[in-house]
Design goal:
Helix 1 packs parallel to helix 15 and helix 15 (about 445-465) packs parallel to helix 17. This protein has helices at about 20-30, 50, 70-75, 85-100, 190-200, 225-235, 235-245, 265-280, 280-285, 295-310, 315-320, 340-345, 390-395, 405-410, 445-465, 475-490, 520-530, and strands spanning about 10-15, 35-40, 105-110, 115-120, 125-130, 135-140, 165, 180-185, 205-210, 215-220, 335, 350-355, 360, 365-370, 375, 380, 395-400, 430, 470, 535-540. The chain is about 30% helix and about 15% strand. The two termini are about 35 Å apart. The radius of gyration is 23 Å and the shape is globular. A hairpin with a 3-residue loop joins strand 13 (about 360) and strand 14 (about 365-370). By secondary structure, the chain is of the alpha/beta class. It contains 17 helices and 20 strands. Strands 1, 2, 3, 4, 5, 6, 17 and 18 form an eight-stranded mixed beta sheet that branches. The longest helix has 22 residues, at about 445-465. It binds 3-acetylpyridine adenine dinucleotide. 3-acetylpyridine adenine dinucleotide binds next to helix 5.
Length: about 550
């Protein structure tokens, strides 16, 4: 183990986290001739796709879209076996990329960064791993992910639970066999919705503890259609350009120009029905131009999905409990399922409403509700989400130019300029940070855009003979204000979602992603760069 006296390794760039973002950053940095190293807490690369091994984990964006675009050779050679790839397939893809571009020699696994300090005199960052190793670097790229800090609620008695419990974001690599068991799943977000049908098929009995129902659309997953794959491969270049003009960074989706309310009801319903049959979330999000801004327009789609739930779920009481009522459809991340609602027609599945009767604690045998009801389970699966967007960065003790802690600077919510940098923290970049469209877009699209912007910026600094870049307070304040104003014009802030930190008790309620769309955001980032990095101070 390295000690604090071990001489520090000095790099041009330290990359923290080797998921899809860190991996691409390492590839780009090497191409620029910079010394760079990736530090990854996991025993393997892949970030989200390394840790989230729960049953049913798969991407809810179609695989032909959810893949890197930086290498045509990679796009042409890789075969996605299904419309939506499973977690193991995506992890194979990520490992394939690491091998193909020979990136492993720049990656240090099992290494968690615990602190980062900026030395203003030397204009260098010193990172320290949890094991005590020091790393000096001119620049730091935080590719730490938005949903990488799993969160188990602070339930009383959990330490005394006699069965086994798991969090979906830290699922055992060897899998879990629930055969013959009574299982409790706590949470009904995207993760639980993917997992519940599979656990129900295996367990003796499944109890689903639901606090808030979500809108769930069918995935209509299927083996990859060879003709579709051929067409997509033939048009990758145009598709990348197309995706850049859209709101969510997904190609082949027309930009909506019509209000839902301007369309006759029969036509609107037919449109929703066609989308329901086709599967996926992106068509619905792009169906009408006021879907996410006008409550009445939104209601038309929400009511359509509510009807579908009632049509599928046989017990009207269960259907009513599963019907979302407290947020506009799409204001929370839309969930995608394969047989979720149908699962509640099974005899071995019980939906437990923990909104009306909250979980009081965990007993040695299971879950106890405030009203006194006891549910005996052998295993518990927490699908209770993450300290999203800021959790991973706040966990690292990051100190900027004047020694201020990032956690302190963000006490009232994250402050960033373009979701890329924070005033007071020179040379520290974030990939898909708060204030950028990352989580509200096809993530790989946004990852590539950020890494390209950051590496172009480093190239520009080098060309000018400069070493330091820092966001100004004024540019940051203007951007935060703009992010808030854009969000406030939409229905997004109306939902108690992780986008506003609602799932973490005490977290400031701030709408964190930028929802002005990928196209507008890209234009802004390009303009800033073209203006010589307007809103940043560059220095030698
Ligand atoms: O987490 P969540 P997730 N008592 O925060 C409940 C991405 N993702 O892991 O809504 C009882 O959405 C909580 O209830 P409530 C995707 O972006 C992507 O499911 O707070 N329940 C909620 O039901 C997604 O949005 C893919 O009332 C409690 C659940 O736990 C994000 O990950 C697949 C509770 C948490 O839901 C996070 O999804 C899966 C308590 N004390 C996920 N505390 C892809 O396909 C929390 N809950 C790419």
């Amino acid at each position: 183990m390295a000690s604090s006296t071990t001489p520090a390794i000095t790099l041009d760039v330290a990359v923290v986290g080797v998921g899809l973002g860190g991996l691409y950053a390492l590839h780009k940095l090497r191409g620029m001739g910079l010394t760079a190293r990736g530090y990854e807490a996991g025993s393997g690369i892949g970030g989200t796709w390394f840790w989230n091994r729960y049953p049913g984990a798969r991407c809810d964006i179609e695989s032909l879209e959810y893949s890197y675009s930086f290498s045509d050779e990679l796009q042409q050679e890789w075969h996605w076996p299904e419309r939506y790839a499973t977690q193991p397939v995506i992890l194979d893809y990520i490992n394939h990329v690491a091998d193909k571009f020979d990136l492993r020699r720049d990656i240090q696994l099992n290494t968690r960064i615990g602190e980062a300090r900026f030395d203003a005199a030397a204009r260098l960052w010193t990172l320290r791993t949890k094991a005590g190793e020091a790393i000096r670097a001119r620049y730091v790229i935080m590719a730490t992910g938005n949903l990488s800090t799993p969160r188990v609620p602070d339930f009383k008695g959990i330490e005394g639970f006699q069965g086994k419990w798991y969090h979906t974001g830290l699922w055992p690599a060897e899998g879990v066999d629930f055969t013959g068991q009574a299982v409790g799943v706590i949470g009904t977000g995207s993760t639980a919705i993917q997992m519940i049908p599979l656990i129900a098929a295996q367990a003796k009995h499944l109890y689903v503890f639901q606090r808030t129902p979500n809108f769930v659309l069918p995935a209509r997953n299927a083996p990859m259609d060879p003709e579709r794959e051929r067409q997509h491969r033939a048009s990758y270049a145009e598709r990348v350009i197309d995706a850049r003009q859209t709101a969510f960074g997904v190609s082949g989706v027309p930009i909506p120009t019509q209000s839902a309310l301007a369309v006759p009801e029969a036509e609107r319903r037919a449109n929703y029905e066609a989308m329901w049959q086709a599967g996926g979330t992106i068509p619905l999000l792009n169906c009408y131009n006021d879907f996410l801004v006008d409550e009445r327009a939104n209601q038309t789609a929400a009511d359509f999905v509510r009807e579908k739930i009632r049509a599928v779920v046989k017990d009207p009481k269960v259907a009513a409990l599963l019907t979302p009522h407290d947020h506009p459809i799409g204001a929370k991340r839309l969930c995608l399922d394969t047989g979720y609602y149908e699962t509640f027609n099974r005899d071995n599945v019980t939906l437990v409403d923990v909104r009306s009767d909250p979980i009081a604690g965990i007993t040695p045998q299971g879950v106890r509700l405030a009203g006194g009801a006891d549910y005996r389970v052998d295993s518990l699966a927490f699908a209770t989400g993450f300290d999203a967007m800021t959790g991973a960065l706040r966990e690292i003790d990051i100190r900027g130019a004047d020694g201020q802690a990032l956690a302190e600077a963000w006490e009232g919510g994250p402050l960033t300029y373009l979701g890329l940098m924070v005033a007071g923290f020179p040379n520290l970049f974030m990939v898909t940070g708060p204030g950028s469209p990352g989580v509200k877009s096809q993530m790989i699209h946004s990852i590539e855009q950020h890494v390209d912007w950051i590496t172009d910026c480093l190239a520009a600094l080098r060309a000018k003979g400069l070493t330091t870049i820092e966001a100004t307070e004024a540019a940051q304040a203007d951007w935060v204000d703009h992010v808030n104003k854009v969000a406030d014009r939409t229905l997004y802030p109306r939902a108690n979602s992780w986008y506003v930190g609602a799932n973490i008790p005490g977290k400031p309620r701030v709408f964190m992603p930028y929802v002005g769309g990928v196209a507008a955001y890209r234009r802004k980032c390009d303009e800033v760069a073209a203006q010589g990095y307007a809103g940043f101070v560059l220095a030698d």
